[in-house]
Amino acid sequence: MAKATTTIKHILTSTPHHGTWFAANQALFNRVVSFYFDVIQSHIIVLDHSNKEALTILETLTHATKRNPSPVMPLSKIAEDIPAYFRRAAIHAALGSAHSFHTHLTSWKQRKEKAGIKGKPFHERPPVPPRSWQKAAILYQGMWKERTKQSIVIKVWTGACWSWIKVRMTGRQLPVDVELGSPCLVCKGTRWWLHTPIERHVHNPGTIEKQMTTHAHTSLCAVDLNINENLAVCTVQTVEGTILATKFIRGGKRIAGFRKRQLGRIARNRSRTGIMAEGQQDNGDLWKKIRHVDEKCAHRISARIVQFAQQHQATILVFEHLGNLRPAKGTYSSRSNTKRAYWMKGRIFTYAKYKAYTMGMLTSRVSPRNTSRECACCHNLIVRYDAGKPVEGYMPGAPLAFCLECGMKGNADRNASLVIGQRLIARYHPKEKPQTLRRVSKDTGVVVSQDAGCEEGPSILVAGHGESNEHGTAHDVRFRMDEPASDIPHQLRFLF
Ligand SMILES: [Zn+2]
Q1: Under 8 Å CB-to-CB from 221, ≥6 apart: which residues?
Q2: In this structure, which residues have their CB less than 5 angstroms from ion ligand 1?
Q3: Are 202 and 397 in contact (CB under 8 A)?
Q4: Cα of 398 to ligand 1 centre, how many Å?
Q5: pTM of the model
Q6: How high is the pLDDT of residue 431?
Q7: How far, in Å, from the CA of 64 to the mean position of ligand 1?
Q8: CATH 3.30.70.100 for domain 208-455
Q9: Kind of pairing, strands 191-202 and 179-180?
Q10: Ligand 1: distance of its center to the CA of 465 in Å?
Q11: Can you point out the beta strands (E) in 239-335?
Q12: Could you read off the pLDDT of 147-176 as tens digits, one per residue?
């Protein structure tokens, strides 16, 4: 079993009083963390112990009890009556920071030593302990109670006393099949949030390599991300190459239109007001609007991709690496629009990756080279064209694809998505790598049937093909079946 952790965020409906109290609580928490960080610095040996042992040692050093009436560095100097759970949360936070700081320091010392031995100059500055502490206060069990869907009762330092207060919260509900971590109070701008980490135990399907090479039933979901109407095209295929399902996630035009309108407004505003002051954000609200819509869209699309993959029991998601952004020509709004659409592709990938992981799916990326120009059936170059236009040439972004070699006809984005999936399969079955691309000349003279399907490669001819005798497993033969359809006309051409 593997663990996947995510954070569920609830916004707290708090009064101005609450805000002041939460801030006082956080300030106290950080004072205590800072104090414990100093204690650890002066008793560095603590870091060699496990967190549990370190906690006991640090409490003995700082906390007065009947048995231990005069600790070396009393916490009571900082504040009296700190609840035990508050103190422990702070100790763990300080231990985390101390471990991180010392790991960095050790590796810096090693680098310095290495440079000294080699006689090279070493100008890197050593890491420094945190100068200011901005940690969110963690609420251990005992610091909160009576949690319901809409409210929670928490114990906070109000600046004058410790008090239990009830706060209302809104946000999505906590899932049922998860382990709850300790929530923490986070301040963003003027609002306070309750972040609750949740841990989900997911079935560990093993590395991608293992899944691809040992399980014949593994299916993968290949995703082609676009900046046109079809924002994402997903196909589920098995490791053997059988296509199980396809899904088009549309809505690209709508979001592009929205973005373009806002960018146009920004451009007009700018032309009206003249040169902006340097380093100052203009049109703040409009930019915010664009950012929010982009963000929401990326989350929605990535969630739908993962949902679709899950419905069809896919355990691997495959994307292509993002290519370079080709600078678009045109007005300011259309250039910025393309740029933002491209950024959104990156965001969809990032979000889909973590969303998939919490569902026990792994994500991989393949080379983007010619994914949209290659035929998914025979790997020759395709013709891409608009509906109602002549079937010739390659029109980037056109919706339809046609392969002159094997007669494959269909949606160009779906074809690209299939190619992406096949690339990952080819990575773990290197013998099955697609052949190098050959440019299709218009005068091949090959008669192609319009509805020749991808899986209908003539198996008898395939078996006679040179390489297929090299490996004898049924697995390999199956792979070959959809590949060499293109070879036949070529061979015929060379022979005769
Ligand atoms: Zn083809």
Answers
A1: 234, 235, 236, 305, 308, 309, 312, 314, 316, 317, 318, 421
A2: 375, 377-378, 403, 405-406, 408
A3: no
A4: 17
A5: 0.67
A6: 60
A7: 79
A8: no
A9: antiparallel
A10: 18
A11: 243-249, 316-320
A12: 888 899 999 998 888 899 999 999 888 888
